[in-house]
Amino acid sequence: MPVLCSSCSEKRAVLKRPKTGHSLCKACFFWAFEEEVHRTIVAAKLFRPGETVGVAASGGKDSTVLAHVMKLLNERHSYGLELMLISVDEGITGYRDDSLETVKRNQQQYELPLKIVSYEELYGWTMDAIVKQVGLKNNCTFCGVFRRQALDRGAVMLKVDKICTGHNADDVAETVLMNILRGDIARLRRCTAISTASEGDGVVPRCKPLKYAYEKEIVLYAYFKKLDYFSTECIYSPNAYRGYARTFLKDLESIRPSSIMDIIHSGENLSFREGVKMPVQGTCSRCGYISSQALCKSCVLLEGLNRGLPKLGIGKHHRLHEKILSQQPLTEREERKLKSVDF
Amino acid sequence: MAAPVAVHLEFGGGAELLFDGVKEHHVTLPSQSEPWDMKQLLVWIQRNLLKERPELFVQGDTVRPGILVLINDADWELMVSPWSHVHCQMMWGGFRCVLLCMREGSYGRMPDMCNILSVDHQMISDRVT
């Protein structure tokens, strides 16, 4: 017996919504999914008419659904936004080059302008070259730090007012868990925020319109809409600790689907004791990007790569910042510590 | 005796990586005394099609959390209850089953402890200073 849609009671249901438990047909699901994103956008006042908004596009399911829904809602509800796609080319052969092809097709399909910024052009290093030097151990640190800045640089080049990213409810819940597990209070405090405040020059505000959208629904939305997306694991090992948190979350979800929303709810409503030590936000004295140290993470990592000391940005070497800034040579002992690459 | 069942299997969203990258499979399940159900289909897939890392595909007697299953283009959670128990009679002569992995990252290599420690250490240093 096919289950009927609990909303229109006419058509055959195609999915059970994890958030509400409702069984919906294709048309009712599309409508519910899109209008929930719309409500999220309106309730959090994410955009203002006339703004130029960059959609961070990786070619994966989340950003493809985001680009699709943003274009659709912009027209349906007359947001008056000018949308663009921004992609980062990390320089990973066989992974990013393929997914960028997807982004290029998306550009045609959605008729949106596309800007690709590459690590090579920004930093002079591709991820392939970085992995060659640092090995497979800390490469995700380089990639993550560089990507964040690369998106900002792309956004500044395109002169967009805001960037929206495809982070979904599962991602946010996972990040809450991760920050609890790491004891990272500063990040725990801000990770559930739907948008970042303007943090200074060169940093474009970001927001997550899919913050309350379940991964399951995003995958099924893309599947039923036959959206063109790319899915392959990154050829370089993903963040292992996050992998555990992810598996744990998926296990919880299979027993109790609301756990994802519950974790987000908990994260949003945490209050923090006064006097908890927080990093003081400043700017990098080399590139001007936000940083809590004399040098931003990206500049330290880059310096390490260029000096052949890949471990410089991994771990605690803040006391070396002064030396780097004044271009002093490091002592032999310091160099030895930073050189060793173990596989 | 249940007659052989023609099944159109499709793997997507990264799940195909466990099947040599092959997304579509047209298979025929042999006749057997009991009617085929999803539980048996999963075992059959594991024995006959799965190429690597079974722990990323099955957990207990169902699919690993994070893999979506569609039967004739409808979410199988509509047909089974409660959430974890899998029992779906295959009443159709031929049917289509799609298994979608929700996120590519789930198929990453299993972590080694060194990696965890080094990531951790870096986070702590970020926080303390």
Automatic annotation (TrEMBL), chain A:
| Keywords per UniProt | ATP-binding, Cytoplasm, Nucleotide-binding, RNA-binding, Transferase, tRNA processing, tRNA-binding
Q: Is Cytoplasm among this UniProt entry's keywords?
A: yes
Stated EC number for the protein is 2.7.7.-
- Which EC class, in a word? transferase
What subcellular compartments does it reside in? Cytoplasm
Under CDD domains, the record lists:
CTU1-like
List, alphabetically, the HAMAP family matched: CTU1
Q: What is this protein called?
A: Cytoplasmic tRNA 2-thiolation protein 1
Origin organism is Xiphophorus maculatus
Question: What gene does this protein come from?
Answer: CTU1
Automatic annotation (TrEMBL), chain B:
Task: PTM 1-thioglycine: list the residues.
Answer: 94
Keywords in alphabetical order, please: Cytoplasm, Isopeptide bond, tRNA processing, Ubl conjugation pathway
Q: In which pathway does it act?
A: tRNA modification; 5-methoxycarbonylmethyl-2-thiouridine-tRNA biosynthesis
Keyword check for Cytoplasm: yes
CDD domains recorded for this chain? Ubl_Urm1 (cd01764)
Q: Which GO terms describe its biological process?
A: protein urmylation; tRNA thio-modification; tRNA wobble uridine modification
Q: Which domain of life is it from?
A: Eukaryota
Q: Tell me what PTMs the record reports for this protein.
A: C-terminal thiocarboxylation occurs in 2 steps, it is first acyl-adenylated (-COAMP) via the hesA/moeB/thiF part of MOCS3, then thiocarboxylated (-COSH) via the rhodanese domain of MOCS3.
Give the sites of the cross-link named Glycyl lysine isopeptide (Gly-Lys) (interchain with K-? in acceptor proteins): 94
Give compartment(s).
Answer: Cytoplasm
Gene Ontology, cellular component aspect:
cytosol
* Protein task: Acts as a sulfur carrier required for 2-thiolation of mcm(5)S(2)U at tRNA wobble positions of cytosolic tRNA(Lys), tRNA(Glu) and tRNA(Gln). Serves as sulfur donor in tRNA 2-thiolation reaction by being thiocarboxylated (-COSH) at its C-terminus by MOCS3. The sulfur is then transferred to tRNA to form 2-thiolation of mcm(5)S(2)U. Also acts as a ubiquitin-like protein (UBL) that is covalently conjugated via an isopeptide bond to lysine residues of target proteins.
HAMAP family on file: Urm1
So what family is this one in? Belongs to the URM1 family.
Q: What is this protein called?
A: Ubiquitin-related modifier 1
Q: Which gene encodes it?
A: URM1
